[in-house]
Design a protein that fits this description.
The chain is mainly alpha-helical and about 160 residues long. The chain has one domain. Helices cover about 65% and strands about 0% of the residues.
Amino acid sequence: MQKMIRAASGLLALTLLASSTTAAAPAHDMSTMAVPLSAPAKSGDPNTWAELNAFHDVLQAAWHPVANGDLTPARASAAQLLAAALVWRKSRGPAKCDNAALRAGMAEFIADARSYADAVKRDASDDAVTETLRRTHADFEAIAEPCMAGAMGEMKGMKKP
């Protein structure tokens, strides 16, 4: 079941990226992440967290085009991003990642993801959508850093909206 959900999430992300009218933001090297984002989830594998990976896939597809002024993917995937965040919150991951600090930050993260989805649903301004998505992205970086420390450092120099 998880493989089907992951495949569907990846297909939607690719569809959103393909429908973008502007060039995508530069890709970053994800190979140094403690929890590989492109790795398929394996039952019992302590180094993967499928739900975190699925959320990050949706976030990446929404967030990076915003750096180039393209909010189409961000608006199209807001509900999916919130749903993926809620699924991630209910899941359990590797002990090095799924810890008290992550769980403590999850409430604010979910609140900001909900604000982002609500802003899109009410057809808020581009500035409002960008700001709520920025907060969601910042929350994600803050709580997921123990899982993604190598890649987070590389991403710091990337162009952000």
